[in-house]
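I hope you will forgive my troubling you with a question about protein structure. I set the record out below, with my sincere thanks for your time.
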Amino acid sequence: MNDTIRTVNCPGCGKPVAWQAQSRYRPFCSARCRQLDLGAWASEAYRVPTSPPDGDSAGGGDHHAPGDTEGR
């Protein structure tokens, strides 16, 4: 069996972190880096890039606002 301890880089600051049970905040190096990452998620700083929908800029299609009877 291989007894080498795997290390990963902290997603917050890049410091090496041993991947073992004693590394309390893994994959982060500290509570601070973990909290900063959680704050970034909570403030929606992490976003998945998307492209605009096909069609017009108003959302496309023949959708009407609730209560709108135009076209009926």
The mean pLDDT is 82. The domain at 7-42 is CATH 3.30.50.10 (Erythroid Transcription Factor GATA-1; Chain A). The CA atoms of residues 11 and 28 lie 6 Å apart.
